[in-house]
Please model this.
Amino acid sequence: LSGRASVDRLLATARALTGLALLLGACAPVGPAPVAGEPPARGGGRAATGPRRGASPGPVSPLPAVAARIGAELNEQRRAVERGEGRAALARYEREAQEAERRGERLAAAKAHNAVAFIALRLGTYDKGIRSGRKALELLVAEPTLESVLTRLRAHLLVGQNYRQVHDLAEVRRHFEVGAEASRALPTRGAALSWSSNFAHALASLALASADYEGAVRHGTTAIRGTEERLALLDASERRGGGRARGARAVEQQQNVERLLAQELAIVARAETQLGRLDAADASLRRALALARSAKSGEAEAMTLHALGRVALARNDPQHAVRRFEEGLALT
Model:
């Protein structure tokens, strides 16, 4: 490649993957990665609507079972979108929400509204996502059970993500910060790590989009620490299993956390690139690329390759940048 054709091609690939990377930051998967037998969370504080740390959440399932159920529901929603069935799933969850409200089943209705908010985010119907997420929060304002608290946390994250797409950054920040504070009051270490990391990830992505690069590094580093500890908890759980073959759910859980960590490393690296810290950015991205491939996540791999292309551009190596951009485009 040379001359004007090279420049045009480079810019076209960069624009395409920039859009993908921003969408991935907005649609980062959410949901806890619990570990059976994990130690209690440290620290004090109260959730905005949840139980005191260490207190009994009332007559609900134990945390690992509740979190596993929420995670399975999220994966079902994600797969529906990936199969091209997003609009049919959206209509189904809207009906489920209405029917549950008529029956007075507030938690079931709120979970269905969250599903609508998640799928609406992926389909680009952001106003619908905001309305549904806010309705979920309204339904659970006085519900103290553990599952209700986790459902409210997911609603805050989804409402913030949808608001981000319509550029209401004040509402984005408000929902993310409320969620981050509430996450620290969850009753186990794994749950607190999981949700705190989710909100730190979201705040890092917001800071990056707002050109607050130091803020992106700060929030992203917090997210990375939490997600690394989540991976360590999963590894410890596997070791306690005595080397037995892992089931499909355990493999999926490991890959979900690896994908999140790859995305967080890429967010920090993109900020480091803007700050001129190219060696640090390159090191983070090489690690992110290995994690994305281990997780078998084409989306996270494409995001990372795009960021590596940006590092190459900053080093005045356009040919290497084009190769990275094209590798990423081939995955989309």
In short: The chain is about 75% helix and 0% strand. The first helix runs from residue 3 to 26.
